[in-house]
Amino acid sequence: MKKDLKSFWISNTICKHCIPPRTLLESLEELAEEELEVILIENLEALYLVAKDFKSFYLKLTKLRDLSIQKKHYLVLSVNKDILENGEWDILTSEFKYIP
């Protein structure tokens, strides 16, 4: 069974399939409402850098996770943990399964 794949680049560059990090961060809940099987966000640190603080970033991600569970989406997040401050990685991995 062939399925269409919806994808876009997280970038401030203006292009057909680009979305600025702040726009994506603000629309994560809308993304979870779409009829998707998998949500993959690579380069999550781009969203982290535009969030006003870790708490707001974390709350958006956990809301996305909860909506993904309700809609039965797979949620895959990729982040460079070196960009996070002390303790933030531990908080994320307490809520999201870490796969090395």
TrEMBL record:
Residues 4-96 form the DUF835 domain. Pfam families: DUF835 (PF05763). It comes from the Archaea. This is DUF835 domain-containing protein. It comes from Thermococcus celer Vu 13 = JCM 8558.
